Amino acid sequence: MIVADDTAFVREKFAKALAGAGHTAVPVRSAAELMARLRDGAERIDLIVVDLRLADSGGVELVRALRRLDEERRVPLLVFSGTITSADEVRDLAALGVAGYVNEYSASEKILPALAPHLFPDSFNRRSSPRVLLNIPITYTHGNTIASVVTGNISKGGVAIRTMTPLAEGTRIRTRFKLPDTSQDIETESRVAWSDRRMGMGLQFEKVSGPGQAAIDKFVDKHFFSNRRA
After folding, report:
1. What kind of architecture, by CATH, is found in domain 132-226?
2. Helix or strand or coil: residue 156?
3. DSSP state, residue 180
4. Contact 193, 123 (CB under 8 A)
5. In angstroms, how far is the first alpha carbon of the chain from the final one?
6. Where are the alpha helices (DSSP H) in 70-165?
7. pLDDT by residue (tens digit) across 8-30?
8. Structurally, what CATH architecture does the domain formed by 2-105 represent?
9. How far apart are CA 26 and CA 59, in angstroms?
10. What is residue 125's predicted lDDT score, i.e. its pLDDT?
11. pLDDT tens, 148-178?
12. How far apart, in whole angstroms, are the C-alpha atoms of residue 57 and residue 47?
């Protein structure tokens, strides 16, 4: 995995969090170095997380250049959300197949849950919807078991859960939670899309009750930009 950011603190924080979970992160400080590593092809690159405002890059144009250089492999690519400046850029990046967005200001313990859906590409149906950090209680039911845990982030298509006892991939469960500043419970039928004891599990929504999906969509759209430095 490559972490491309011109701030040493961000590079080191992400690299340390990934190393602690057994992943290798290569820190990169410039667009030229990023392009060189991708062009070289000597390393196996499973994921790229990139700052669109690197000193020698041109925003969305950097992503276009990466895609031209990597037409065959199409390495999953995330963008640091704090470097997005407009909704137009979000649309342009989605058209280029950007897998999602991650908050470069995330606390260290939130980095792995944010990256997990992209570190397990074969078991998670990635969507172009941004993921918003969200720390709220959520209850899930599996058979006769009812458990209360905490979310890590949410997108329009699913939610990440922090737990040391994740269920197996493919397990179908029911969930119930309330979004901040709302009074109505949202109930879903979900499938465990990825599972890892170091990070928790990710749920992919398969059915959302009543107006719940509209509420989730509105929440994600509203908070993606306003919470980028949260």
Report:
1. Beta Barrel (2.40)
2. coil
3. T
4. yes
5. 24
6. 87-95, 108-119
7. 999 999 988 888 777 788 899 99
8. 3-Layer(aba) Sandwich (3.40)
9. 21
10. 47
11. 999 988 988 899 999 989 999 899 999 999 9
12. 19
